[in-house]
Write a structure and sequence with these properties.
heterodimer, A: 32% helix, flat, B: alpha/beta, 11-stranded mixed beta sheet, 15 helices, 37% helix, 13% strand, globular
Chain lengths: 95, 495
């Protein structure tokens, strides 16, 4: 599996990271080095092996379905780069 | 009293209780030392006012009697821990200006036990790195040097600030976190002790997430006893972290009996890597002999999937990181890029993340995005999760056969020079974690103990791996190794 410039561009977009066009070839090359390393996993016989979902098996605790937190709008907005009238503000999303 | 900053936690505890020293004196000694150690770039946010207030309160508590073990002990806190009102940036520009409105469970427990916060410690950005060269605050410098050579060395990473600060006696101990070796590798590079507990022993709540199924916090200290004392204060069930184990925290310090007679300790043949330096090989053999001399039964064991741990890690950790780091979008906290006229919300996300994340973080987020993307999920992510099952099974098999601890080298080399790996491809840097990463994948406790110096005078560490939830037993084995190795070297002060 080899990653070309177009795939690198697509992955960068999926990750929402702006990568300039002239930086894409080097990025693709780095991806290929890392993926080449990862390819070793293909040597392993994984027939019948379950994928790990929890490293220390334990049942998740349950609790009553009630409100346990809230009422801290000011704290939640405190670090926002742009907060107005009790909301996070962002550029226009809907035309 | 001079050089109070050089005390261990256990010695300071004794002096505080005896009234020989106050927490304020200890704290002031550390603050003064930190001021003179700017060159190391270990402390990146200083909190002297908080420290002195906490120290006064600790002194009152100690005077009243029955103070907890950690009461009055000055600590450094890795920047990955959210500390209320104090910058917590995870070493990243994308969190510049972020001051949490809440306190991580671990730091809260430490403050409740009377510990003192001296400030926040430098680290690799989002804990991604093995040399502390990816931080937005710049490199951390290792207080150790190669003989008289003044080349600056890495303290390792990602807990490089914690390692450098403890080794240079800027604090009595520090918090670290470990996703693939980030406590143990830097501890080994600077000649201190660092333990990553069993996954679920310490709450992850309020610790900036890198790879949630692998991340665990732990103490970085000047002795094994200190690690036992501080780990107890950091451990325990937390309802806010659904993966934190609802288990009683044993008295780890009481487990340090120094008696390991009859204990079965495994030596895994797969950890004997091609091209491993002779000095590491010798250190490992010496460590094995020390444990044998102490009465342990040494057993050759096999962990056949060891070779696949790093490639599995470099699928799983970036995948989880790409998901965890999606939250840094310029909306809720931290940096937001300036937009040109006509640019929309996608431009905001993309520019914010390009400006805020450094190259290594960008690389890992994109790799993670790729291995989770449609058409590749089964081939990469699901396969890696199945290999992870096999890696854990390897350990279960040897533990089922009666092995109680496993001895390995902590790192494949001594500390290398800052910048020395600049031209290497990313995979070369990843190899630093070859001995430590298996432990995270299997969720086990692992501890790095300083065991010797190489021919250039740099510290080398050994790693002991324990059974799940048996940190007490593991610490006891480490304690025996520590006593036998008798590592007392300190870096000469040049900074």
């Amino acid at each position: 599996m080899s990653i070309d410039k177009d795939t690198a561009r697509r992955v960068a977009h999926l990750a929402r990271i702006r990568v300039e066009e002239d930086a894409l070839p080097a990025l693709a090359e780095e991806f290929n080095a890392i993926l080449g390393f990862i390819e070793q996993l293909n040597e392993v016989d994984i027939e019948g092996v379950e994928p790990m979902t929890s490293v220390t098996p334990m049942p998740l605790k349950r609790r009553a379905d009630v409100v346990t937190d809230g009422g801290q709008q000011d704290k939640i907005l405190k670090n926002a780069p742009d907060a107005r009238e009790g909301f996070f503000a962002v550029p226009k999303v809907v035309e | 009293m001079s050089e109070l900053n050089k005390l261990t936690i256990s010695d300071a505890r004794a002096k505080l209780r005896a009234g020989d020293v106050t927490s304020v004196e200890l704290t002031e000694a550390c603050l003064k030392t930190i001021e003179d150690a700017g060159t190391l770039n270990a402390f990146v946010h200083h909190t002297p006012e908080i420290a002195l207030d906490q120290a006064k309160a600790a002194d009152a508590r100690i005077a009243a009697g029955n103070a907890p073990d950690m009461c009055g002990i000055p600590l450094g806190i890795k920047d990955l821990f959210c500390t209320k009102g104090v910058p917590s940036q995870a070493g990243s520009a994308i969190l510049s200006g972020f001051r949490p409105e809440y306190e991580s469970t671990i730091t809260l427990q430490l403050w409740d036990s009377g510990s003192i916060m001296l400030g926040k410690l430098n680290m690799d950005e989002f804990a991604m790195g093995s040399s502390n060269e990816t931080s937005t605050y710049g490199n951390v410098v290792n207080p150790w040097r190669r003989g008289n050579d003044d080349a600056a060395l890495t303290p390792g990473g990602s807990s490089g600030g914690s390692a450098s600060a403890v080794a240079a006696d800027l604090c009595l101990a520090a918090t670290g976190t470990d996703t693939g070796g980030s406590i143990r590798q830097p501890a080994a590079f600077v000649g201190i002790t660092g333990i990553k507990p069993t996954y679920g022993r310490c709450s992850r709540w309020g610790v900036v997430a890198f790879a949630s199924s692998l991340d665990q916090a732990g103490p970085m200290t000047k002795s094994v006893r200190d690690a036992a004392i501080m780990l107890a204060a950091m451990s325990g069930h937390d309802p806010k972290d659904s993966t934190s184990a609802d288990l009683a925290v044993p008295d780890f310090e009481a487990a340090l009996t120094g008696d390991i007679r009859g204990k079965k300790i495994g030596i895994p043949k797969e950890y004997r890597m091609d091209g491993m330096p002779d000095e590491i090989e010798k250190l490992w053999a010496d460590g094995t002999a020390m444990l044998r001399d102490a009465g342990a039964e040494i057993v050759d064991i096999s962990l056949p999937h060891t070779k696949y741990a790093l490639p599995a890690y470099y699928v799983i950790a970036p995948a989880e990181a790409s998901s965890n780091l999606a939250r840094y979008d310029g909306v809720r906290y931290g940096h937001r890029a300036k937009l040109a006229k006509g640019e929309g919300i996608d431009d905001m996300y993309e520019k914010t993340r390009a400006e805020g994340f450094g190259p290594e973080v960008q690389r890992r987020v994109m790799i993670g995005t790729y291995v989770l993307s449609a058409g590749f999920y089964d081939a990469y992510y699901r396969r890696a999760q199945r290999v992870r099952t096999l890696i854990k099974k390897d350990f279960e098999n040897v533990f089922d056969a009666g092995i109680e601890a496993i001895l390995t080298p902590a790192t494949p080399s001594a500390a290398f020079g800052l910048g020395e790996m600049a031209d290497a491809d990313p995979v070369q840097m990843y190899l630093n974690d070859v001995f430590t990463v298996t432990v995270n994948l299997a969720g086990l406790p692992g501890i790095a103990v300083p065991a010797g110096l190489d021919k250039q005078g740099l510290p080398l560490g050994l790693q002991l791996i324990g059974r799940p939830w048996e940190e007490g037993d593991l610490l006891n084995s480490a304690y025996v190794l520590e006593q036998a190795a008798g590592f007392v070297s300190k870096p000469g002060k040049w900074w």
